[in-house]
User: Fold Nicotinate phosphoribosyltransferase from Glossina fuscipes.
Amino acid sequence: MGDRETRCNAGGQFMDRGRMNQNGVVQPLLTDLYQITMAYAYWKSGKTDDHSVFDLFFRSNPFHGEFTIFAGLDECLRFLESFHYSESDIEYLRRTLPEGTENEFFDYLGDLTAKDVTLHAIDEGTVAFPRVPIIKVEGPLIIAQLLETTLLTLVNYASLMATNAARYRMVAGKHVNLLEFGLRRAQGPDGGLSASKYSYTGGFDGTSNVLAGKLFNIPVKGTHAHAYITSFSGIEELKARLLKHKLTGVTGDLLELAIKYRQKLSTVLNVSMEESSEGELAAMVSYAIAFPDGFMALVDTYDVKSPAKSTNSNNITAKTVTKAVISKSNAKNLSDKRSTDINETKLPITTTSAGINMTNGWTVHPNGNIDNINNAVSTSTENDTNKNDQNMNNNNAQPHDSKYHACMSQLSQRSLSNLCKKTEKSFRSGLLNFCAVALALNDLGYQAVGIRIDSGDLAYLSCLARETFERVAERFKVQWFNKLTIVASNDINEETILSLNEQGHKIDCFGIGTHLVTCQRQPALGCVYKLVEINGQPRIKLSQDVEKVTMPGHKNAYRLYSSDGHALIDLLQKVSETPPEVGQKVLCRHPFQESKRAYVIPSRVEPLYKIYWQNGKITQKLPTLELVREKVQKSLKTLRNDHKRTLNPTPYKFAISQVSVSDNLYNFIHDLWLQNAPIGELS
Assistant:
């Protein structure tokens, strides 16, 4: 067994490589089969010594934006460093490739390394733009070809993820913390680990992913789930209620203190004692004893009504109803609904364990499905009834029944109002119990951290929480209550944060999962890897789609800056050309449209490429993940704000194109195009 297999098996999927951790799955066989079959065909054709140049680039920015963050370079370099086919790899390829593949080819692969490859790249964490190569690979044709798929898989998701995270950071603002909570929703373990790493690169402050914290030294954050709260039924279940004072060491009864403060707070906050849950209080006391210096509680678990007001013990909890009905319309709409849509409707609505029952025969179930009770008991055949149920459970179904529309109208008014009130009540129960436990901790020398809200109208509830904390701080003379952290989660995306900003939320931290790690708005970046030169001769790929025409030849890239210090345009030149100079007029042309051109007088010229790998070694000192993270923010600051805005950003192209070319390269491209384009014949 080779050294690589030993390290993989002993160290798990990720191997400790010192500065950063190398994914043990990243190895030469992490490629497409056609790379290896092409390598054999190259070998058979005697092209082992052909010198090639490949460009790795993308054609459009993701998420309808105007920038991309380049990430994944470190892992690409680690891959080159460890590139070698092990004995077991060779044996597998002998069994896999077609019969008749010559044995000498497998001997050739067994000796193959990346020592003859030279890799040029822009710095990791730099803003990048379409069609400008972010990596250039030059070296023997076979090895350069074999690198393609692995380099693409290392760069594509990393750059997409870092870009997505950077966009969240911009809309949230620099004073709000962002935590990545997406491991359970990510595309498998590798996707989860990469999401944690590159969301941190893009500007997030931490992750819930413990393994990512260990491997990449990312701050790990987390509290507890609703399961912890619901695991307690009452205070009699508490097996531990005593806690030593942080400074004096004198033991105090945390539960007794919390109950005392809850009685006082009930009057201050105008919350009835019957509206708070004993089980919730017990759970919070238990958690505070376990983590007195890090007490942060989830406060929206229960909807507890006063016995005098409640006539049905099977009422749906606020958590269930909110998830069933509100979540699809998004919490951002609830504030407006509360103030404008709620004109008390006289149509009766009853809430049961089965759902919300309407008098017109419709039922909204806790899972969000809508059924017509009248249809269910009609004389139609069983098959017809099943079809009806199927249609009503389909989110895309558009029933034309007037009763359906009446049901939805009621939901948008009376029931939505009730749901808001239910969510507020569940929240007030949690808030009352949290404040009671936090004040009890204060008596014993500890400071609570804050709360997490996971459902409902996040803007409204965060404002209610902040107001509550301020009232408690003033009433009990505990000033640190003003600074308690409010964390919000619940399927948050860019649009949610923008809406919450407009509503004046009081949230200090967002926990973001699904939309972040799956990049739901655009699941792939679409980087490509194209041959642009062989043995010093340029190569061009022609297509009826001009966007797919490649830029031939070995090129350099420069970023030109305007007099105000912002990046103005990226310029591609042939490597043989003299670099542009500060203060000197440069003709920048659209690569394919003759009339689009402009002179630029740069105030600063930044060469984009550095040699990162040569002669079998990494040639640059690689930055830590923290430094790459800082690089992202510094690079983004070089862009004008209108390039970075979420809605209708200004294209980074100076009215020419996303990339410009020198006059020399423009003529070179078009001459080569004419030489290679077939000439049609008419008859």
Summary: The longest helix spans residues 402-443.
